[in-house]
Every structure is written in structure tokens, then in C-alpha cells.
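Can you please make up a protein's amino acid sequence together with its fold in C-alpha cell form to help me picture the idea?
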Amino acid sequence: MNTNIKDNKQEKQSLDAFIKLQRASNSLNHFLNKQLNDAGITENQFGTLEALFHLGPMCQKSISEKLLCSPGNMTTVVDNLVKNGHVIREIDPADRRCHHINLTKEGRVLINELFKTHRQNIILAFEVLTEKEQEVLSEYCKRLGTQKLLNNKKEDK
């Protein structure tokens, strides 16, 4: 989709770049999430399992922050993972407000298999770019994602 802004070159360029970034992201997510859909888990469930697999047991709040997911949504995600036998929820004896989430044996087997395929699919998707192009893209995405404007909690008024 082309933007119809003709007067301001910078606006047009920014909007065009945003549209291309959004389309690329949507396309990659569609490709990568097919495997998750086939396995009957959501993207946030996969992210939770993956975080626990690589980082070990975590407080539910920490998982929520890592996945940029609301605490309310994370509760639903964890509830469903518990219901399906993939994780267990344990209350921290030192802080009863904190629930540590840990993988079950079944959850560990599931994420181990899913992650192998997921990793291979990511590598396959990025083969269209050279190693240098991937490095540059990574740097640009990091710069966009960590800019002060996006991370400022106060709204401009």
C-alpha cells in the first residue's frame, strides 16, 4: 500500500518504511506461527515456554514483562498452560504474592521439539538476507525499539 502523502517527503518516507516493516513482521509471524497453531498453542504460550526453557523458573510478572504482555493476559496464558499440563505454578514461600512458573516434563519435551523447528524456520526465513544485511537489520530494529521516545512513560501533552 502506497501512502498518498505528496507534500512531505520525510512523512512519506517514514510511513512507507513503517508499512514495509509491518508487512514483513506480519509475514514472518504468519509463517512462524503456523507451526504453533498446528501444535495448538498461542504465540504468548510459546514465548512463555521458551523463556522458561532458556531461563529457568520465573515469576509470572517477570515473564509478562519479557513478553511485553499485560499481567491479566499472562494469567490467562499461564492458566491455559497449567490446564494443558505444560507448566506448574508455585507460590514463593518468601513472597506469597509471587508465583514461580516452571516447566513440567511434558512442557519441556514440547518446547524442546517446537523450538528446534522454530529456530530452523527463522533461519530459513532470513536466508533471503546476507549475513551483513541481517546485522544491519538487527541494528536498525534495536535502534527503533530502544529509542527514548518509545520508552518514555510520560505522554507528550
